[in-house]
Design goal:
Helix content is 28%, strand content 23%. By secondary structure, it is an alpha+beta fold. The strands form eight sheets. Strands 7, 17, 18, 19, 20, 23, 26 and 27 form an eight-stranded antiparallel β-sheet that branches. Strands 1, 2, 11, 12, 13, 14 and 28 form a seven-stranded mixed β-sheet that branches. Helix 1 runs parallel beside helix 7, helix 5 packs across helix 14 and helix 12 crosses helix 13. The protein starts with 5 loop residues before the first strand and ends with a helix.
């Protein structure tokens, strides 16, 4: 341990989507000295910033935690690969860059669970505050915020055919999936601007780094929250193999993500008492919901062979095409490398009786043959993918410690396919994909259904396919759920129950996963949290 302990007003543990945003916002006024700790390196890897570069970071252990689940009984005992960002920007530095807020009913549902101030009307201003919407401002969107949102820059013939086929299949076209209504099909909006990924680190941290009151430590792996008399007072962390400690005069803000935040709390003695005792960790605060309620979207891929050489498979499989695309990107910041290859998004219902969509379908301009330990391999011929995602599953899982070693990955268990509805919904998603693929607009492009394959038609056949191939959509939430009562960890101001000076600010506080991609909601949570933290601090000063 270093003999000299640095002191700050706020310490933020984890520089991911939320941590970058909350640390940057807290440093804006100049009132507070803020320390931001990140276990991974700086975001200097060039593939982070190239939109199509996520194919290179998806399996890179230097910037990706590369977690795996425990064997999943409902999925034939398979371990699921769980990519998570390990660099400034966190998973926003390696994800698919889709900007999606979810459904207003998600947030009204949070309010109904006792989360005061988290209904749709209350969170919309923070979505708008964060946003720099390329289409301009309106009642749903803001401009001038740190997080740039732009239309899909590539609208190829295949992409246009995909969108037209949705209309032919009876899916309404919706120009704004983040606007007045969610259901329907549209080109996706992305966190890409000027041909570059716009991660939370780029949006928030890059302009904030010039402030002397914000200190960013990379390669700093938080191992324990320091607690004295029921109050969080500091963080212990490892950097370069040396143990360090930092003290916080005001608060510790845990932003390690849905897997990392409960792990750090449990390592610090905050969590389910029986589990902590089994791990040999002294119990500071018995909170059974720490690490419980893991809620995630479930997905399965459907692939088609394309009849024309117009897909990203053709780019990937040709050195000449890759070279030309690289030159185009280098000189213009345009072309296929300047996008994510995900063109069209669809929100639909697995059952017409539902009030809001429970399925999301993403239409990709490529198809994957396999994943090795180090690379994603496309088919050696033209192909495209439709990805049905179940957005509102019943099943819940958990995050637990694998042991007392703070450097060991957590033990992650999902609750996929726990109910008939969970299986029926994802099968309905596959059938909708097939309906889209069969429409006249896509016939010039569609040759063979590769998976599930034309032979798998019955519910039993498709159930087998789902169990053999289904996986996480990488949108985990809810392991430090917000609310009141025994099944929650933080209150509506994100303060850990029964602990002073300690908050959790990231996707883990969601009472339930949102109906769509989770990065934009996570940034919104950070924006709202920063305001609440400053309000509480100033109120305490006035009282004092």
């Amino acid at each position: 341990m270093k003999s000299e302990v640095d002191s700050y007003d706020y310490i933020v543990s984890g520089a991911g989507s939320a941590g970058c945003a909350v640390a940057a916002r807290l440093s804006e006024s100049g009132r507070w000295r803020v320390l931001l700790l990140e276990a991974g390196p700086a975001d200097t890897n060039p593939w982070i910033h190239v939109p199509m570069g996520y194919a290179h970071t998806f399996l890179n252990p230097k910037v990706n935690w590369k977690y795996e689940s425990v064997p999943q009984k409902a999925l034939g005992g398979r371990r699921l690969y769980l990519p998570r960002g390990k660099t400034l920007g966190g998973t926003s530095a390696i994800n698919g860059m889709i900007y999606m807020r979810g459904n207003p009913a998600d947030y009204d549902g949070w309010r109904q669970k006792g989360c005061v101030g988290w209904d749709w009307d209350s969170v919309l201003p923070y979505f708008k505050k964060a946003e720099d919407q390329g289409r301009g401002a309106d009642e749903f969107h803001g401009v001038g915020g740190p997080l740039r949102v732009r239309d899909q820059p590539v609208q190829s013939g295949l992409a246009e055919a995909m969108l037209t086929a949705c209309g032919e299949a009876g899916i309404p076209l919706n120009p704004d999936l983040n606007g007045a209504s969610q259901e329907g099909a549209s080109y996706l909006q992305l966190n890409i601007a000027n041909g570059l990924r716009w991660s939370s680190a780029t949006a928030y941290l890059r302009p904030a780094r010039k402030r002397k009151n914000l200190i960013v430590e990379t390669g700093a792996h938080a191992t324990r929250i320091l607690i004295e008399n029921g109050r969080a007072v500091g963080i212990e962390y490892l950097k370069g193999g040396v143990r360090h400690a930092a003290k916080a005069r005001a608060e510790i803000i845990v932003s390690g993500g849905t897997y990392g935040s409960p792990q750090l709390l449990m390592l610090s003695g905050i969590g389910p008492a029986d589990h902590l005792t089994d791990m040999g960790i002294p119990v500071v605060r018995d909170l059974p919901a720490v690490g419980a309620n893991l809620h995630d979207h479930f997905q399965v891929y459907a692939n088609w062979r394309c009849a024309q050489p117009v897909t990203l498979n053709d780019l990937h499989n040709s050195w000449i095409r890759k070279g030309l695309a690289g030159l185009q990107y280098g000189f213009t910041r345009g072309g296929p490398i300047a996008t994510n290859g995900m063109y069209v998004g669809v929100f639909a219902k697995s059952d017409a009786r539902l009030e809001i969509p429970d399925l999301q379908i993403i239409l990709y301009g490529f198809s994957m043959a396999k994943r090795t330990q180090t690379a994603l391999i496309t088919h050696p011929f033209p192909g495209f993918t439709m990805l049905p995602v179940h957005l509102r599953p019943d099943g819940r899982g958990s995050v637990r410690l694998a042991g007392p070693d703070p450097l060991a990955p957590p033990s992650i268990t999902f609750g996929y396919l726990q109910t008939d509805y969970d299986m029926e919904a994802i099968i309905a998603g596959i059938r909708i994909c097939r309906e889209i693929a069969s429409q006249p607009a896509l016939r010039p492009y569609t040759r063979d259904e590769l998976i599930p394959g034309a032979s798998r038609q019955s519910a039993a056949d498709l159930e087998g396919f789902v169990r053999e191939n289904g996986t996480s959509n990488s949108h985990p939430t809810s392991t430090c759920a917000m609310g009141e009562g025994p099944n929650t960890v933080v209150d509506s101001r994100l303060r850990v129950h029964g602990m002073a000076g300690l908050r959790v600010v990231d996707a883990s506080i969601m009472p339930a996963v949102t109906t769509g991609n989770t990065n934009a909601p996570t940034v919104m949570i950070a924006e709202k949290a920063a305001v609440m933290i400053e309000e509480d601090a100033l109120n305490e000063r006035r009282v004092a």
